[in-house]
Write a structure and sequence with these properties.
The chain is mainly alpha-helical and 239 residues long. It has a domain of 133 residues: VKOR domain (de novo design (two linked rop proteins)), CATH 1.20.1440. Helix content is 61%, strand content 2%. The chain has a two-stranded antiparallel sheet. Strand 1 and strand 2 form a beta hairpin. Helix 2 runs antiparallel to helix 6, helix 4 runs antiparallel to helix 5 and helix 5 runs parallel beside helix 7. It is globular.
């Protein structure tokens, strides 16, 4: 009887003991691997197409800048011609310097990028930005010459064509994968920068910043033409 009681008590203790709930193992959270940014290989040679086009633009604008400094008319730009009218307008100079000098600086920067900068991302972004600014300014000058001055300059049109080709070439050469670059955002930012620069230039030519660079006073212009026709001379004395 004693053994039976002991067995009965042991079985009751087992039934009374709370059942142990199995501990469920949490599934391991897989960490998302960051997508590796593509590494663009360094360019092993200059961008000869960009360099050649930029060199052509440098020669053209250097010629116009030099003739402007020497106060001489370029070839095929006779006095009174459409080309001469554009060159002699207030848009023909900027801060007392020939406007063509700005074009020469732009083409020189593109030439340097084409020769020296071999990192594909830096090469493309810098060249594309500069070419967009240059193209925007060329469009502005062409529009002014056609709408406001109502005359065409063959040299300005040639520069516009060269810059348009450069911009098209660079757009075509854009690397398919630029590390950490959102092309849409980058393009939008470049357009805004271009608009701000051209807007500032237009305000300058409107006489907002410098009245001397703005439109001519019709009265003073007429007086000057009248005095020139009458061959008037100014006499003075100094003590």
């Amino acid at each position: 009887m004693g053994k039976k009681k002991k067995r009965k008590a042991a079985s009751q203790k087992k039934q009374a003991a709370p059942a142990e709930t199995p501990v469920q193992e949490q599934p391991a959270v897989k960490k998302k691997k960051k997508k590796k940014q593509p590494v663009l290989q360094k360019m092993d040679k200059p961008n000869w197409l960009l360099t050649g086009l930029a060199a052509a633009g440098m020669i053209l604008t250097a010629y116009l800048a030099i003739t402007g400094w020497l106060d001489k008319a370029p070839v095929l730009c006779d006095e009174g011609s459409s080309c001469d009218i554009v060159q002699q307008s207030r848009w023909g100079t900027f801060l007392g310097l020939p406007t063509a000098l700005l074009g020469f600086i732009t083409y020189t920067a593109l030439f340097y990028i084409g020769i020296r900068i071999r990192n594909p991302g830096t090469h493309w972004k810098s060249a594309w930005t500069i070419s967009m600014i240059g193209l925007g300014y060329s469009i502005y000058l062409i529009t002014i010459s056609m709408v406001v001055i109502q005359a065409a300059c063959a040299y300005c049109i040639a520069s516009f064509i060269i810059m348009t080709i450069i911009f098209g070439v660079l757009t075509f050469q854009r690397p398919k994968e630029l590390p950490e670059v959102n092309f849409a955002a980058f393009a939008r930012q470049t357009v805004i920068i271009t608009a701000v620069i051209i807007g500032g230039m237009h305000l300058h030519y409107s006489g907002i910043f410098d009245p001397m660079a703005g439109p001519e006073d019709p009265f003073l212009k007429g007086l000057a033409e009248h005095l020139t026709e009458d061959q008037a001379m100014l006499y003075g004395a100094y003590w």
